[in-house]
């Protein structure tokens, strides 16, 4: 069953997150005010089309890009980035559409063969100063194909998202690389808990799921400069931020979905992580940081 998050509230834009395991995810992001979002982990690559406002992405690897309406940014996976979404005077809100590519899709033999034959450019963050019509159309078809009511076989949805990768390659010379097979323990923990964030995760449960001892798990995380507490909080807060931006779910429902029974406790943790309140994402004055 394809997951979908959407609670209509009369907003002028019906927003939701559509995901298909092994293929990708589509999201329509709306943000009521400009915000800086630091240290966001991108395990999978994404294509971001900016419709209103501006978006700046800065990679831990030193690359950066700033996109205006009608432009796009390609963000590679397996990296940590900073996002700055701005709302210029006279503009109602920041708005962008995301397409996230599942790592499994990048392993498509046809795509890999074509990428190997073409001269290509690779960067951790890449600006597309102009989104060509074929790519824009392919993006829309892919987003629609990922919707749970699309009435399309998963094989067709996969082809439509794969088409976007091919247009990026053919028109813009952008090839997305398959992440290294030996993913670090931090990535394995994030992959394990994502989608089950309301679970009472303990070190023992996570270690058991990864088939290692608790001591080994903690030792490997320390070697990567991480901790279980940090990973749990970051993954929960990152998911909460996405739900605030890309759905119309109430804050209380989002808090529950990421493992917080108390909305007030969730709000405190969210502010500690990002520096602004959950309500600020949707432009509520009382949420101003």
Kindly list the characteristics that best describe this protein:
289 residues, Jelly Rolls, Arc Repressor Mutant, subunit A, four-stranded antiparallel β-sheet, 11 strands, globular, disordered N terminus, disordered C terminus, transcription regulation, AraC-like DNA-binding protein, transcription, DNA-binding transcription factor activity
Structure write-up:
This protein has helices at residues 103-106, 109-117, 133-146, 154-172, 185-193, 203-209, 214-223, 228-246, 251-257, 263-274, 278-281; strands at residues 4-5, 17-20, 24-31, 35-42, 46-52, 54-59, 64-67, 72-75, 79-86, 94-101, 125-128. It has 289 residues and is of the alpha+beta class. It has two domains: 4-172, Regulatory protein AraC (Jelly Rolls, Sandwich); 185-287, Arc Repressor Mutant, subunit A (Orthogonal Bundle). The strands form two sheets. It has a seven-stranded antiparallel sheet. Strand 2 and strand 3 form a beta hairpin. Helix 3 runs antiparallel to helix 4 (154-172), helix 5 (185-193) packs across helix 8 and helix 6 (203-209) packs across helix 7 (214-223). The chain is globular, with a radius of gyration of 19 Å. Residues 1-14 and 285-289 have low confidence and may be disordered.
How would you sum up this structure in a few lines?
It contains 11 helices and 11 strands.
State the CATH class of the largest domain. Mainly Beta
What's the domain count? 2
CATH architecture of the largest domain: Sandwich
* Portion in strands: 15-25%
Helix residue percentage: 25-40%
Low-confidence regions: 1-14, 285-289
